[in-house]
Amino acid sequence: MSAWIGIDIGGTNIKIATVSPTGKVLARGVVETRASEGPAPAFQRIHEAARYLAGSQSVAGVGIGCAGLIDAGRGILRVSPNMPAWRGANLGRIARAHFRLPIHLENDATAAAFGESFVRGTRGRDLVFITLGTGVGGGIVADGRVIRGVSGFGGEIGHMTVDPDGPPCRCGSHGCLEAYAGSYGIVRAARDAAEARGWKRAHKLSGKAVTARDVLDAARRGDSVGRAAAREAGEHLGIAVASILNVLNPSAVVIGGGVAGSFDVLAPHVRRMIARHAFADTARAARIERSRLGNDAALVGAAMLARSSTRPVRKSR
Amino acid sequence: MSAWIGIDIGGTNIKIATVSPTGKVLARGVVETRASEGPAPAFQRIHEAARYLAGSQSVAGVGIGCAGLIDAGRGILRVSPNMPAWRGANLGRIARAHFRLPIHLENDATAAAFGESFVRGTRGRDLVFITLGTGVGGGIVADGRVIRGVSGFGGEIGHMTVDPDGPPCRCGSHGCLEAYAGSYGIVRAARDAAEARGWKRAHKLSGKAVTARDVLDAARRGDSVGRAAAREAGEHLGIAVASILNVLNPSAVVIGGGVAGSFDVLAPHVRRMIARHAFADTARAARIERSRLGNDAALVGAAMLARSSTRPVRKSR
Asked: What does the pLDDT average to over B7-35?
């Protein structure tokens, strides 16, 4: 049985795994990301680690998930927020020179969406993945295929406008989903709620170390400021999800990313807004659920994309 | 050279055409829709008309576009707003019995999206079609394939929430795009603007016969009530399009439907909101333009879907 190698290139770490044809992680390793280093020496280290992980197992292909704007067809990292030195690099070619195997390069959120889709089988063929972290990202799978858009920018669910008069977003726009449900949006909402209640409270919750998780933990404990912020984030997430349901009619909306662990606090507000704004049939068709693969989603997704691009998807499942 | 037959089933008329492999309408006819009639006798008449139109030309397949919820895989019209008597009918089987040819059944807006995609060639492979009429509908083509969603409800762009505190929509929700840019939304906006300016104006614009077209014609003439309504409709259409650009990154957003003839009045507002709410790269990648096929979009799209389902899309283009 062949395995596939999945690689998830992040700003701090590069995760590497061997993945079975059914999407199971067989062995895993991590190498550090060196900001100063170009992609060629990095892939030298990645290849060594991967070879060690694979051992005597035969490897059929390599899938790479990477933050940034990807030209998947040509294997080029066009824009990279975390590693400016990698901008424009043909990672496909560099990786192929080391591995001498078919290489598939994909945006990390898109790869994660495919991973979550893959592990759900037929129930995952129409799936939207939303990653809640500092920013809000996403990936779309429709009828078993990832949606990239004409220039690879597809899936920017965090920058759907959920309220045109809403707060400023990092992207320069106003009222994006991210401005509510990104971690800075959640902290901002807590600060607003605290201010509305008087500065004593605000001080308590607006110290340097306050994170979105602190806010949502406070909400879980019943803190009124935390609950107000959770409501604001969850309602706007629900409005965006309702629009996505009406436009894409997926069978699953999967929530991942660092804030996904606090999704229980947001979920009631999400569901209330879906009931208000989505068609009943469309809402019924979709499960809203947490990521099954967690931090492995991009890793497994990239490996399984490499697998499906070397063998036709329909035949191999 | 074979032709394909396209059929567009509407509540008043059924349009029929023979269509060339390049998407040109070769001959066309119309038969009336009889509300009381079931699908079997209707297809008797449709088949006779199609046979007359095709003459001695060989026909390779038949594509049917129909309003409602379609199970394209099985050829079943699951829900039909215009023809309740057709609900649940296996139009694929009924049509096949008459034509003895491969049949492709598709939602009419999805078929229209494919038609607009097809006539644009590679520039149309990632395309979003928005139809502005009484309601606001839509269809999505991603990487050359139509997006239907898991239960066939995909493409309901008119029911994206553009302002959660917005006016009521026919669907029961609030602040849907349709509540602003559907013809009833445009007339409502004119009435609101007139009321805000005093009843004399309102009376002038709120007579029984006032249509969205009247309102947008008034806007074109510089009427302040018409202009306010056009601004409200156009801005909210632009907000929805901006979200679509960020999520799907299409190369074209095509505006069709009965109100498309007045799109010039809405376009400046649409473009302003895209500039405010979409990523610059995503906005640059997409042309916002009027339908090229007009009333033929669903007809041509259905015929070309029949063509691509009998021959693989990639090979035949």
From this structure: 94
Question: In terms of DSSP bridges, do strands B136-142 and B127-132 run parallel, antiparallel, or are they unpaired?
Answer: antiparallel
Residues of A in Cβ contact (< 8 Å) with B242: 161
Kindly tell me if the per-residue pLDDT of A201 is higher than 60.
no
Distance CA A62, CA A101 (A): 7
- Residue carrying the six token digits 């990632």: B126
What per-residue string of b and e applies to B102-124 under the rule 16 or more CB within 10 Å gives b?
A: bbbbbbbbbbbbbbbbbbbeeeb
CA dist., res. A246 & res. B157, Å (int): 7
B64 bridge partner residues: B7, B105
Write the residue in B154, B239, B285 that is nearest to A164 by C-beta: B239
**pLDDT one-digit tens code per residue, B201-245:** 544 555 556 899 999 999 999 999 999 999 999 999 999 999 999
Secondary structure (DSSP) of B101-169: S-EEEEEHHHHHHHHHHHHTGGGGSSEEEEEESSSEEEEEEETTEE---TTS-TT-GGGSBS-TTS-B-
3-state secondary structure of B173: coil
Best of A140, A143, A247 to substitute, by most chain B Cβ atoms within 10 angstroms, is A247
Q: Which of A120, A122, A150 to mutate to test the interface with B (most CBs of B within 10 A)?
A: A150
What counts of helices (H) and strands (E) characterise chain A?
12, 12
Q: Hey, are the CB atoms on B160 and A243 less than 8 Å from each other? A: yes
Statement: the pTM of the whole predicted model exceeds 0.90: yes
Q: How sure is the predictor about B26, in pLDDT bands with cuts at 50, 70 and 90?
A: very high
Nearest to B149 among A69, A126, A156 (CB): A126
Rounded to an integer, what distance in angstroms lies between the CA atom of residue A178 and that of residue B162?
16
Q: A108-119 and A297-310 helices cross at what angle (nearest 10)?
A: 80
Output the CA torsion A282→A285→A291→A293 (10° steps).
-130
Strand partners, A142: A145
Residue of A75, A54, A55, A74 whose CA lies nearest to A65: A75
Instruction: Give Cβ neighbours of residue A252 (< 8 Å, ≥ 6 apart).
Output: A116, A120, A123, A124, A126, A127, A128, A286, A287, A288, A289
Q: Report yes or no: B309 at the A interface, CB cutoff 8 Å.
A: no
Residue A311, pLDDT score: 55
Q: What is the mean pLDDT of chain B?
A: 92
pLDDT at A317 over 90: no
B residues 219..258 contacting A (CB < 8 A): 235, 239, 242-244, 246-251
| Closest to A147 (Cα-Cα) out of B160, B249, B268 | B249
Query: What is the per-residue burial (b if ≥16 Cβ within 10 Å, else e) of A129-156?
Result: bbbbbbbbbbbbbbebbbbbbbbbbbbb
- State how far the Cα of B112 lies from the Cα of A80, in Å rounded to an integer: 37
Of B192, B238, B196, B243, residue with least CA distance to B215: B192
Q: What does the pLDDT look like over A281-296, one tens digit per residue?
A: 999 999 999 999 999 9
DSSP reduced 3-state for B58: coil
Determine, for residues B143 and A147 on separate chains, whether the beta-carbon distance falls below 8 Å. yes
